[in-house]
Design a protein that fits this description.
Shape: globular
Number of helices: 10
Helix content: 10-25%
Strand order of the largest sheet: 6-5-4-3-2-1-22-23-24
Structural class: alpha/beta
CATH topology of the largest domain: Metallo-beta-lactamase, Chain A
Largest sheet: 9 strands, mixed
CATH architecture of the largest domain: 4-Layer Sandwich
């Protein structure tokens, strides 16, 4: 599975980070899914190997502007790109009203159908094309949700010993049985491929959370997951100064939950603009000035023993079949800075 970060800032963009948008896609396929669509998402897409014609569904976690203001423009661009296939939009009920008003007053007409799914009424929001997506409700100032992406088209292993024990000769039927299909033999027997083959491995699972000040609400959604992507807006110290009203998670909260849940990989994102990508250094004293993303990392790693990553815009992660997390930089500047642009993160 692939996860591409198109925006990692909270509330407002910075010079290096756009607001929230995350692309999730299956391995070796062009189909993909978008979680949130903050303003400027379509501009980030110009630098990513993602086609609006292959976008299958947009999942909005909640209706705050930094998570949905980019959607009308992206839909219009999909129209200009020649999209004709229907597009599924999954999110709070207000999403449909928001888009209908925008389309009415901006006189936006689309040649493709928009299919709305109210996430509040459906726990299973998508089950097609080898991807199963379920949701859970989170804790925020407005209704907010997290989504679980589960791979369902796992390659199967044929139970050869069972076939031989039952006297079923090898042939073209074995290939169909391995795919899980039913076949009828020459002697009239009908065999269910599901009984003569089994998944060769566990389907990969990625969980993406929306804004949320109670990570523990994602416990059921994260069961058996390989990777959690969750907001980490503040450090504990800054959160204490800001107060509880924004209802965001700290790096410590998320790390503590991920450790308790036994998650092997954790990617933090949605950083407050007050945290710089690179620490500012006082040229005289050599000491750090202000806050940086490294402060969030340092807080999280004291509580989480798994593989901890801090998301950056135009960074793509690949979760391979061995459970390894591989990071690839899509920004040309960073490609030039590394020898091969890739790093294995176990």
């Amino acid at each position: 599975m692939q996860i591409t970060f198109l925006g990692t800032s909270s509330g407002t963009p910075t010079r290096s980070r756009n607001v929230s948008a995350i692309a999730v896609g299956p391995e070796r396929k062009r189909e993909w899914y978008l979680v949130d669509c903050g303003e400027g998402t379509q501009h980030r897409l110009l630098k990513a190997p993602l086609s609006l014609l292959k976008l299958r569904a947009v999942l909005i976690t909640h209706m705050h502007g930094d998570h949905c203001y980019g959607l009308p423009g992206m839909l219009a661009s999909a129209q200009l790109s020649g999209r004709t296939e229907p597009l599924t939009l999954i999110g709070p009920k207000a999403l449909e009203s928001f888009l209908q008003a925008m389309m009415q007053f901006a006189e936006l007409s689309l040649d493709y159908e928009l299919r709305f799914i109210d996430v509040a009424d459906n726990e299973l929001v998508w089950d097609a094309l080898g991807m199963r997506i379920t949701r859970c409700k989170l804790s925020h100032r407005v209704p907010s949700y997290g989504y679980r992406f589960e791979e369902t088209d796992v390659e199967r292993r044929l139970l050869v010993d069972k076939l031989r024990q039952e006297g079923i000769p090898s042939g073209p039927e074995w290939n169909r049985l391995q795919k899980g299909e039913s076949v009828t033999l020459e002697d009239g027997r009908t065999l269910d491929g599901q009984l003569y083959s089994e998944p060769s491995r566990k389907g990969r699972v990625v969980v993406v959370g929306g804004d949320n000040d109670k990570p523990e609400l994602m416990e059921a959604l994260c069961e058996g997951a390989d990777l959690l992507v969750h907001e980490s807006t503040y450090t504990v110290e800054v959160a204490a100064k800001v107060g509880p009203e924004p209802q965001h998670s700290t790096a410590a909260q998320v790390a503590e939950f991920a450790e308790r849940a036994g998650l092997p990989h954790l990617i933090l994102t949605h950083f407050s603009p007050r945290y710089l990508d690179v620490p500012a250094i006082n040229p005289v004293t050599g000491e750090q000035k202000g806050l940086s993303v490294e402060d969030l990392r340092e807080e999280a790693k004291t509580l989480y023993s798994g593989n901890l990553c801090m998301a950056a815009d135009l960074e793509r992660y690949k979760l391979n079949r061995k459970g390894e997390l591989q990071c690839e930089w899509l920004r040309s500047r960073r490609n030039a800075e590394s020898s091969n642009g890739k790093e294995i993160r176990r």
